[in-house]
Amino acid sequence: MVEPDLSRLARTIGDPTRMGMLALLMEGRALTAKELAYGCGVQPGTATEHLKRLQRDGLIESTAQGRHKYYRLASAEVAHVVEALMVVAKPMKVRRPAGAMGAARFCYDHLAGELGTRLTAVLLEREFLVVDGDAMDVTERGKVWFADFGIDVATLRKRRRRFAYPCLDWSERRDHLGGALGAAVAERMLELGWIDRQKHSRVVSISELGHQALANEFGFVIDSLASDQAVEISS
């Protein structure tokens, strides 16, 4: 009989440096070993050994491009595990912009923080989305809205990854929209110029156009101004 080796996985994730690397990769972009080493405060040689362990256990994958090797999370499911751990982890104080991370960030490739949870709440309230157990689905009204927004729901359903599901947000303690649909919403907002990624960070910047669009389209405003102070977080 074959069973998942949960104890090995726990030991792999439980190392502070490896957990830090997974958290850095939660922004959804590929990073080099040197960037991950710098982000976790370890030497490149040490980082390489940690990356080998993460890759052996199927948590990350790598792609060679020229002289560099880039690492990313192996799947959206890995990102979901990391985000779930952030929900249950005991908070600790670190110096990080207090407002920005909680206001808007990426959870792998979909939107999290206040922006992600409030957007999801509006889509549910307007009955564009419905919760079905541990999944979400698009209603007939929702199909029309998503099409007008520039998202082809039928095409997303054909992808191998889960279509849509509620992802519990560690900072808001409410659900945001995960899955292929959540990623498509984030990508569309990037295309429209409503939001932008901050380099080597999960933080999302909301443009002036984005603030206006969120107010007009969804009826809310996000205060994304960050203050440099100690803040309790779970990662």
From TrEMBL:
One of its GO terms (molecular function) is cadmium ion sensor activity. Transmembrane segments: none annotated. One of its GO terms (biological process) is response to cadmium ion. InterPro entries: ArsR-like_HTH (IPR011991), HTH_ArsR_DNA-bd_dom (IPR001845), HTH_Metal-responsive_Reg (IPR052543), WH-like_DNA-bd_sf (IPR036388), WH_DNA-bd_sf (IPR036390). It holds the Pfam family HTH_20. Residues 1-93 form the HTH arsR-type domain. PROSITE patterns: HTH_ARSR_2. This is Winged helix-turn-helix transcriptional regulator. It comes from Billgrantia kenyensis.
